[in-house]
Design brief:
191 residues, alpha/beta, Rossmann fold, two-stranded antiparallel sheet, 7 helices, 35% helix, globular
């Protein structure tokens, strides 16, 4: 079973997080939602939707005992992405997953605000929320404008809330294959 860690911090973009969590669980992933940079498992999204994470990031790291997940998903939203970017343990985990050639997926502000500190953008094409690419510093040169998502090697990035479904489906496809993605697309009555 594929293990996926989804980071949540106060100010996260709800549709980006919940869509990825839902579709990954439908695909059969063991998804753990970890609260990051907050004092409790209750995390409030950018539009005031409160979500209870499965556990705190520190508890996840203690239970994992150094075993990396097959993928990490970093939702965007502001100040959610900025809050994740201030969590050293989150950045270290994202970096380790990327260095292990496991999947790193980030959407909206997260590719530009969180990923530069991890080095996972190096050598990859990527996208993010329009207007955020300047936050990526030197990595802005490999930014790709236009598509809902960009998949390049072990990195999947998405543009923003309106691309949440396509982004989540690409993460499912990368982890579980075309057949699993097609089953979810049909079962969810996607366009």
């Amino acid at each position: 079973m594929k293990k996926v860690l989804v980071f949540l911090a106060d100010g996260f973009e709800e549709i980006e997080a919940v869509t990825a969590i839902d579709y990954l669980r439908r695909a059969g992933a063991d998804v753990v939602v970890a609260a990051t940079g907050t004092a409790s498992r209750m995390v409030t999204g950018a539009h005031k939707l409160a979500v209870t994470a499965d556990m705190m990031l520190d508890d996840y790291l203690a239970a994992a005992k150094g075993v990396l997940p097959d993928a990490v998903v970093v939702p965007g939203g502001m100040p959610g992405a900025a809050n994740i970017s201030r969590c050293k343990k989150a950045l270290e985990l994202i970096q380790a997953v990327g260095e292990n050639d496991s999947l790193v997926a980030a959407i909206c502000a997260a590719p530009a605000v969180v990923l530069p500190a991890t080095g996972v953008l190096a050598g990859h094409k990527w996208t993010c929320y329009p207007g955020m690419k300047a936050k990526a510093g030197p990595y802005a040169i490999t930014y790709t404008d236009g598509p809902a998502f960009v998949a390049d090697g072990n990195l999947v990035t998405g543009r923003g809330p309106g691309a949440a479904e396509q982004f989540a489906m690409e993460v499912v496809r990368v982890l579980f294959g075309n057949e699993a993605a097609a089953e979810i697309k049909t079962g969810a009555c996607q366009r």
